[in-house]
Amino acid sequence: MSKLVISTSSFDADNNPHIKRLLDEGMHIDGNRYGRKLTEDEAMELLGADAIGMIAGIEPLTERVFASAKSLKVVSRCGSGLDSVDLAAAKRYGIAVLNTPEAPAQAVAELTMGLILSALRRICQTDRLLRAGEWPRTQGQLLAAQTVGIVGLGRVGGRVARLCQAFDAKVVAHDSYVKQRAPGIESVPLEKLLAEADIISLHLTYDTDTHHLLDGEAFARMKPGAVVINTARGGLIDETALAEALASGQLGAAALDVFEQEPYRGPLLKCDKTILTSHIGSLARESRQRMEVEAAENLLRGLVNAGLMKDG
């Protein structure tokens, strides 16, 4: 019996037609029993030496993991980002790596908009004060009056830009790779975006070049009272420097769905200018269903291409 692994912390295998077919073909499936992101060692233990295929979350899939997974032929990432996967090592070990870039894009974009609006209108802060017995008359800001800077104008960033335009906000963007701009979006250097935007929203991949893209120096260049949003990857922001910029008043607010270490236990928890969510960007029911179905379909296709299953 061939072994498959589902390492994501949540996955509806019971209602997935491609998983059903894999089970009908005699496959055995092992899952994540921790209910959270796996560590490198936990991923190695789950895969063992006998797993031929994997539906992956955001756990680190390193050279060490691939070296230990002697039978692994296909990794199907349930999501868009591949920064947690050592793609060069996967290629050396003959492991196909697939992802689902379109499925989560709308969900992440809509969460981004929720965070932007919550930060501007201070919804979470007002809710906390009301529950504490106060009746705050909190004055917020209009999105229509802001300049929104989008860093990364791909699948998610492009959607966020269009949604902000629908609110009559001015949108500027910085992206080194996307050449074709949507109407009404000005392309600017990163330094100009940081200096002029009232809201900076990150929608780019994480790698060594973008590690701590927003650090203490970047925060110092921003407009006083600027709002920072991150629904992309945690390593893009120096979280300690962010906490300091919020405490000093240089930044007005920050909203983060992703963190360098998850679950997050850092200083931003004590800052009342932050909105923090637990990496829920793709966790809209409709988007998650599509993502899981596509991930399982990719796994099935990868196993067929590897000659480990018959087509059809």
Description:
35% of the residues lie in helices and 17% in strands. With 312 residues, the protein is α/β, with parallel strands linked by helices. The protein has a seven-stranded parallel beta sheet with strand order 8-7-6-9-10-11-12, sandwiched between helices. A five-stranded parallel beta sheet has the order 2-1-3-4-5. Helix 5 (105-121) crosses helix 7.
- Give the beta-strand count: 12
Q: Please identify, by name, the CATH architecture of the largest domain.
A: 3-Layer(aba) Sandwich
Look at the helices and sheets and give the structural class: alpha/beta
Q: What is the CATH class of the largest domain?
A: Alpha Beta
Rg, Cα atoms, Å: 21 Å
Tell me the CATH topology of the largest domain.
Rossmann fold
Low-confidence stretches: none
Number of helices: 11
- Distance between termini? 20 Å
Mean pLDDT: 95
Measured by DSSP, the beta-strand proportion falls in 15-25%
| Helix proportion range | 25-40%
Q: Which outline best applies? A: elongated
| Helix/strand order | EHEHEHEHEHHEHEEHEHEHEEH
Q: Could you give a short account of the major beta sheet?
A: 7 strands, parallel
Strand order of the largest sheet: 8-7-6-9-10-11-12
CATH superfamily of the largest domain: NAD(P)-binding Rossmann-like Domain
| Tally of structural domains | 2
